[in-house]
Design brief:
Blueprint (H helix, E strand, L loop, with lengths): L2 H13 L5 H12 L6 H20 L9 H27 L7 H13 L1 H43 L4 H13 L8 H30 L6 H5 L21 H17 L3 E5 L6 H10 L1 H11 L3 E8 L12 H15 L4 H4 L1 H9 L12 H13 L1 H6 E8 L12 H14 L4 E7 L3 H6 L5 E3 L5 H11 L6 H15 L3 H16 L4 H8 L6 H10 L3 H17 L14 H13 L14 H15 L6
Parallel strand pairs: 1-4, 1-5, 2-3, 3-4
Helix pairs in contact: 2-5, 3-4, 3-8, 4-6, 6-7, 8-13, 8-15, 10-12, 13-16, 20-21
C-alpha cells in the first residue's frame, strides 16, 4: 500500500464517524462567530437594519407629505420598514438564545433549515419593495427635473448674459436629486439613502465574490490535523523549553523568530513523511508568538496572516490543487479585509455594483483569475504601503494538479510572489525533502524537522506508557522506540498503539521488545506489517471495513463507524432481507455502557489494528 494512500485511509476512517456534517458545520460557524450567527444571517441582518433605519428617517413623524407622490413614497417606505422588522424578528428567532452552548447552536442550526424558505420569501419581498421605492422616487423626480430644465432653456433664449450660469445649473440638475415638491429634509434623507444603498451593494458584491471563492471541504484538512501533544514543539518559540540538542533547537528558534520579525522570502520546514510537519505548521500558525513577531515586521501596516493545507487524499480535487490553494488564501484575505475586493477583482466588482439590485452573482474562479487577483493586490501601490501578508502553506508535496501544473510550476509561482513584492508578502511552507523543494528554497532559511523532535517524541512516548509500572522498562521502551523511529513521529504513534493493544491483550513487555526490534522503520513497510498482522480469520471483515470507508467517500450521506456493527447481520440475512429490517431489529450499541463500548472497540480494533487513532 502506498504510504500517502495509507495515510489517506487513516483520515477517511476517522472522518467516517461524521454525522450531519452540514448541520454541525453550521453550528460550528455560529459558535466561532462573535455574533453567534452564520455569516449569511449576519450579512442579512446588517443589510436589513440599514434598510429599516433609512426608511424610518425617510418617513419622519414631525413633517407631513406635501404631494400625493411624496405620500406614495412614504407608504412604500413604511412597507419596507415592516418587512425589515419581520426579517429581524425571524433572525432573532433562529439565533442561539444562549452563548457558548453547543446544544443551543445545534438547535439554532435546525431552525435555520426549518425557516429557510420563510426567510427567502421575506428577502424577496423586501427586494421588490425596495425596487418599487426606487421607481416611485424616479417618477417623482423626472417631471420636476424636466420642468426645471425647460425653464432654464427658455431663459437662455431671452438672456444671453445668463447662459453660462444656466448651463451650470442644467448640469447640476441632471446629476443631482433636487426636487421642489419634497421638503429639504426629505431630499437630504433620500440622498443619504441612495449613498448608503451604494455601500450596501458593495457589501453584497464582496459577499458574492467570497461565495464564488469558497468550496466544499475547504477547511477539512486543517480541522483534522491533531493538536500538538503537551509541551511538544515549544522549542521553536520558547527558549526555556526542554530539548535534546540545545544548539540545534536554539539555532532553529533564532532562525524562525528572526525571519518572522525582520526576514523576507520563504521559510522552509522540511521533513520526512510522518515527521509532524502539518502539526508543527498548525502550531506555528496558532501560536501567539508568531503574531507578535510578525507585528514587528508589519510596523504601521495592517497584518494579514492566513494558511492553507494541501491534502492529497482529499475527495475534492480543490483540496490538492493550486487553484484550491489560491481560492482558500484569497477567501481568507478578502474576508478579513473586504476593502481589498475591488482591487483583486475589478471587473467583477464593477459589474456587480453597477447592477442596482441585491441579486446573487457568481463568477467562475479559474486558476488564471485567482492568480491575477493576487498579483493585482501585490502590484498595487496602496496595498504595498498599507498591508503585510504572511501565508503558511503546508504539505507542498501533496500538491496534485494537471500535467502542465507540476511541482516546479508551483514553486516558481510561490517564488515569484515574494520577488514581485518582497516587502509586502512572505511565506512559511512545509514539504518532504524532495529535490524540487530543496533546490527551489535553497537560498532561504530552512529547518529539518526530524533532527529536532527527539525530545518531543520521548515526552509523547512516556505519557502513553504510563500503564507500565516498572520505570526502568518504560524508559528502555521509550528510548528503543524513539531510536528506531528515525525522526518519524507518526511511526512512534502507530508503534505505541500496537504496544498498548498488546498489553491489553495480555502480552508482556518482553515479547513486545522482541517484536519491536523486527519492526520496519519506513512508514510504508510499517503499514504493510500492520495489515499482515491482522489474523487471517479476520482479514475478510477488515477488508470490508476498509472498502466501506473508501466507498463511503463517494456517497452523499454520512454514516458512522457504528455501521460496522451490521456487517454480520447483513451477511447472514442476505442483502434483500437486510434492507427490509427495522432499525430496532438491528444490533445496537449502548453508548452509556463503558464495558460494552470497550468490548466493541477492542473487537473492532482487531480488524483495523493501529490504523485508527484513539
Amino acid at each position: 500500500m502506498e504510504a500517502l494512500t495509507a495515510i489517506g485511509l487513516i483520515a477517511n476512517i476517522v472522518q467516517f464517524v461524521d454525522l450531519g456534517a452540514k448541520l454541525i458545520g453550521s453550528a460550528k460557524e455560529m459558535r466561532d462567530s462573535a455574533s453567534g450567527m452564520t455569516v449569511e444571517n449576519k450579512s442579512l441582518e446588517e443589510v436589513t437594519i440599514e434598510m429599516r433605519d433609512l426608511t424610518s428617517r425617510l418617513d419622519p413623524p414631525t413633517t407631513k407629505a406635501k404631494s400625493d407622490d411624496e405620500k406614495a413614497l412614504r407608504r412604500l417606505a413604511q412597507e419596507c420598514r415592516e418587512l425589515s422588522d419581520q426579517i429581524l424578528r425571524l433572525l432573532k428567532k433562529v439565533a442561539p438564545s444562549k452563548p457558548n452552548s453547543t446544544l443551543r447552536y445545534m438547535r439554532s442550526a435546525f431552525k435555520n433549515i426549518k425557516y429557510k424558505d420563510e426567510m427567502r420569501e421575506l428577502e424577496d419581498k423586501l427586494a421588490k419593495c425596495r425596487d418599487q421605492l426606487h421607481l416611485q422616487f424616479s417618477k417623482l423626480t423626472s417631471l420636476e427635473v424636466q420642468g426645471q430644465l425647460h425653464a432654464l432653456a427658455t431663459l437662455a433664449h431671452t438672456n444671453d448674459g445668463m447662459l453660462r450660469t444656466m448651463e451650470q445649473q442644467m448640469k447640476r440638475l441632471r446629476q443631482g436629486t433636487c426636487v421642489a415638491s419634497l421638503s429639504v429634509e426629505a431630499q437630504d434623507q433620500i440622498k443619504t439613502l441612495l449613498g448608503l444603498t451604494r455601500l450596501t451593494l458593495e457589501g453584497k458584491a464582496a459577499h458574492n465574490i467570497l461565495s464564488s471563492l469558497a468550496f466544499d471541504e475547504m477547511r477539512t484538512r486543517a480541522e483534522t490535523i491533531q493538536e500538538e501533544h503537551c509541551d511538544t514543539f515549544r522549542w521553536i518559540v520558547d527558549p526555556n523549553a526542554e530539548v535534546d540538542d540545545t544548539t540545534l533547537a536554539s539555532n532553529a528558534r533564532e532562525l524562525y523568530l528572526s525571519w518572522l520579525s525582520r526576514g523576507r522570502g520563504i521559510f522552509h520546514v522540511a521533513g520526512k513523511l510522518g515527521s509532524g510537519k502539518s502539526t508543527l505548521m498548525k502550531f506555528l500558525f496558532d501560536h501567539p508568538e508568531t503574531q507578535q513577531q510578525l507585528l514587528k515586521w508589519a510596523g504601521e501596516a495592517k497584518l494579514v496572516v492566513i494558511n492553507h493545507f494541501f491534502w492529497k487524499p482529499g475527495k475534492q480535487s480543490l483540496q490538492k490543487s493550486f487553484n484550491g490553494m489560491m481560492r482558500t488564501l484569497l477567501f481568507d484575505l478578502l474576508d478579513a479585509h473586504p476593502e481589498l475586493t475591488k482591487i483583486a477583482f475589478p471587473g467583477a466588482w464593477a459589474r456587480m455594483t453597477e447592477e442596482d439590485k441585491f441579486s446573487e452573482f457568481r463568477i467562475p474562479m479559474s486558476l488564471q483569475i485567482t492568480l491575477d487577483a493576487l498579483l493585482a493586490l501585490l502590484n498595487d501601490e496602496a496595498v504595498q504601503r498599507s498591508y503585510r501578508f504572511c501565508f503558511f502553506i503546508d504539505a507542498l508535496d501533496e500538491f496534485e494538479d494537471s500535467p502542465q501544473h507540476d511541482d516546479r510550476y508551483m514553486v516558481d509561482a510561490l517564488r515569484s510572489w515574494v520577488q514581485t513584492s518582497p516587502n509586502t508578502i512572505k511565506l512559511c511552507v512545509s514539504s518532504r525533502e524532495h529535490n524540487v523543494f530543496v533546490n527551489a528554497f535553497a537560498d532561504g532559511p530552512r529547518i529539518r524537522l526530524q533532527e529536532l523532535t527527539r525530545h518531543d517524541m520521548e515526552c509523547f512516548t512516556r505519557s502513553k506508557l504510563g500503564s507500565i509500572p516498572e520505570a526502568a522498562i518504560r524508559e528502555r521502551l521509550t528510548h528503543d522506540i524513539v531510536d528506531r523511529s528515525d525522526g518519524i513521529f507518526l511511526w512512534v504513534v502507530l508503534v505505541i498503539k500496537q504496544l498498548r493493544q498488546a498489553l491489553e491483550d495480555g502480552r508482556d513487555t518482553s515479547s513486545f521488545e522482541e517484536e519491536l526490534a523486527t519492526l520496519p522503520t519506513e512508514l510504508e513497510e510499517l503499514f504493510e506489517h500492520l495489515l499482515k498482522s491482522i489474523p487471517k480469520s479476520q482479514r475478510k471483515k477488515a477488508s470490508q471495513i476498509f472498502s466501506m470507508v473508501q466507498e463511503h467517500e463517494t456517497l452523499p450521506i454520512k454514516l458512522s463507524l457504528l455501521s460496522c456493527l451490521h456487517l454480520d447481520t447483513y451477511q447472514a440475512d442476505q442483502q434483500e432481507k437486510f434492507a427490509t429490517k427495522r432499525l430496532s431489529a438491528l444490533p445496537s450499541l449502548n453508548m452509556q455502557d463503558e464495558y460494552e463500548l470497550h468490548t466493541w472497540s477492542k473487537q473492532l480494533g482487531h480488524y483495523y489494528k493501529a490504523i485508527v487513532k484513539d
